[in-house]
Amino acid sequence: MQSPKRSLQPNRRVLPGFGLSLGFAVAYLSLIVLIPLAGVFIRASGMSWDEFWSIVTSRQVVATYKITFGVSLAAAATNAVFGLIAAWVLVRYSFPGKKIFDGIVDLPFALPTAVAGIALTTIYAQTGFLGQFFYAWGIETAYSRIGIYIALTFIGLPFVIRCLQPVLEDLDKEVEEASATLGAGRWRTFWRIIFPAILPAWLTGFSLAYARAIGEYGSVIFISGNMPFRTEITPLVIVKFLEQFQMAEATAVAAVMLVASFFILFFINILQRWSESIGKARG
Amino acid sequence: MSIQAIHIQKTFGTYRALDNVSLEVPDGKLVSLLGPSGSGKTTLLRILAGLEFPDSVETSRVLFHGQDVTATPAGKRGVGFVFQHYALFKHMTVAANIAFGLNALPRRERPSRDAIQARVAELLSLVHLDGLGKRYPSELSGGQRQRVALARALAMKPKVLLLDEPFGALDAKVRKDLRRWLRTFQEEIQVTTIFVTHDQEEALELADEVVIMNNARIEQVGDPQAVYDRPVSPFVIEFLGNVNRFVAGMRSNQPTDQSKDVLYVRPHDVELEPEESETHQYALKAKVQHILSAGNYGRVTLERLGTHEPFEAEVPRERLRELDLQPGKVVSVVFRHVRLFPKGEFLESAVKDGQLEAVAG
To answer: Is B237 among the domain residues?
Structure first.
């Protein structure tokens, strides 16, 4: 029997087990994410600050940051735009083959990244099926930053679409009709009514695609050519250090990536909070 | 502005939503589209609004003030539309919701910022929501939200106001208040108003004219008194409030095969007499089943002797006491007013009919 005093406590919940589930969640997160990542810092802390600084700011490494974070941003932005369009089409229209198209969206998730890399390289190489046209226009689609961009766009594709689909499906049709009866055109209805509602999910999709692109390795190394200063990505630098048993150097660069990624995601999270506050209003 | 719908035909896939429906609404009237769900009433309203279009814009036509608007989209018809679930823009304040239509006007026609603000304030006080402009829809009650939706629709000074089950999502008390308020409000602003409802009480209380729909067709159009007193079909009489239905012949307490007539009597037209009183030669005999006496009227459930047809009577409480009814007691039954539909057709006045004079008191 519960004492009546206890049931009067203001924070009694309908479902029990808050303490247990919270404890489990924290332990799980620690075990899977935090402790391994902390290992990176512990390893990196074995060297002096000067050593650390000289490794992570060496010209070759700095060049890879620019490529990794820059090209990833471009790829995620591309996915944000076209993912929105694709999600819109998949939710709003019905056309033959829609189910198949919808299934294809997930392929970049399922495909081993190396397979994707090899396939993309074959297609976009100078003699490739698509590459020949690009090269004819003077656009080098393989062994260049454009190649990295193509690979990162490919692997980030599902995120924006899958984040937006449920939100687009949940949109209240009557709200759009209300906007239409008030004389708003389609464009205005989209920007003023639909966009604020889907903005948080859109940002989530964007940040997931961005995070995935920053960490991507397998598909990129085939198509990029891995030329230092030009097409070398940071994850590759880490692998290179590891292959030469330079553990300290590898963890130093990894630590930089970790911190940078954390701040980028943190910033996007703040953006998302803000967009939720305008998208859903209060209460 | 008067509204005309001519031969409206609408199908969704294989489902026929409207079957050759024609309707005329005179200027400034408050008209209700009444019917069960699936009767096509909302589809008709949406076609009038321009949110839905008839199958063919050549054979089906919608006229506003004599002008063909069949193919005109919603935004250009000058209609205000209020949705059942308000459809407010939840990321905007109440004021921004109301101003939305004005802000969407092309720059040349758009009022100045101050003028829009003044208009919003004016509308807020019109719907009795003064000072709530800075709130968000989620901070309002259901009744308040519906009034915001109304204010938003009125901001564009529509010539026609269309409401789709406007009180459907509200609780009984709020619904009654808002209904009464809408009635006086509509009289004030004199805008042609059509509202959809499945609540017969709402339609009869509120509308100048009731359009009763069933199965993609209009069954009857008329003022509330007319449709209630002179229903043209069994559907209408059954839909408009409680009614008792007798299938068997009425001459005696024995069912007779020769008559397939269906006779309808409203519970308040059923009079109960003590069993032994033979004031009416052909009075029915019935056994009392159940008595519910809350309110001014007692509701008595009876079963007709012989045919076992159940029916209800509404008896004033005093009369109930006089009769001293108990479940199981047998009483004589007299009908004050009946409607008879022989084989689906309508007899002008069932009471005058020879066969029925005996039972109708």
So the answer is: no
Q: Both B260 and B227 in a single domain?
A: no
pLDDT at B229 over 90: no
Query: What whole-number distance in Å separates Cα of residue A169 and Cα of residue A166?
Result: 5
Are B83 and A183 a contacting pair at CB < 8 A?
no
What are the Cα distances from residue B23, in Å, to B218, B220, B233, B346? 8, 11, 18, 22
Q: How far is B149 from chain A (nearest CA, A)?
A: 9
As a whole number of angstroms, the distance between CA A96 and CA A160 comes to 23
Say if CB B325 and CB B288 are below 8 A apart: yes
Q: What is the mean pLDDT of residues A58-64?
A: 91
pTM confidence score = 0.78
Measured CA distances, B3 to A60, A182, A261, B163 (Å): 76, 19, 62, 15
In angstroms, the CA B224 to CA B261 distance is 26
Report pLDDT for B185: 84
DSSP assignment, residue B188? H
CATH number at B18 reads 3.40.50.300
- In angstroms, the CA A71 to CA A92 distance is 31
Residue A220 near residue A143 (C-beta atoms within 8 A)? no
Among A194, A89, A189, A170, which Cα is nearest to B73's? A189
Q: How far is A83 from chain B (nearest CA, A)?
A: 24
Phi (first) and psi of residue B210, to 5 degrees: -110, 130
pLDDT for residue B222 is more than 90:
yes
CA distance B361 to B343: 24
Q: Is the Cβ pair B81, A181 closer than 8 Å?
A: yes
Contact A182 B104 (CB under 8 A): yes
**Where does residue A249 rank: exposed (0-12), middle (13-18), buried (19+ CB within 10 A)?**
buried
User: Which residues, in sequence order, are bridge partners of residue B299?
Assistant: B292, B314
Q: CA torsion B325→B326→B327→B333, rounded to 10°?
A: -20
Q: How far apart are CA B305 and CA A217, in angstroms?
A: 88
Entry field: residues in chain B: 361
Q: Does A192 touch chain B (CB under 8 A)?
A: yes
Domain carrying residue B285 = 244-357
Q: How confident is the model at residue A3 (pLDDT cuts 50, 70, 90)?
A: very low
| CA pair distance B32, B227, nearest whole angstrom | 12
Confirm or reject contact between B283 and chain A (CB < 8 A): no
Q: What is the CATH number of the domain that holds B286?
A: 2.40.50.100
Partner A contacted by B90 (CB < 8 A)? yes
Q: 41-80 in B: which are within 8 Å (CB) of A?
A: 49-51, 73-76, 79-80
Q: What is the pLDDT of residue A42?
A: 85
Instruction: Provide the 3-class DSSP secondary structure of residue A170.
Output: helix
Whether residue A193 lies within 8 A of chain B, CB to CB, comes out as: yes
Strand ranges across the sheet with B339-341: B244-246, B262-265, B339-341
Cα dist. B263→A31, B253, B327, B336, B349 in Å? 78, 15, 25, 13, 12
Question: How many Å lie between the alpha carbon of B150 and the closest alpha carbon of chain A?
Answer: 11
Considering the domain A37-279, what is its CATH architecture?
Answer: Orthogonal Bundle (1.10)
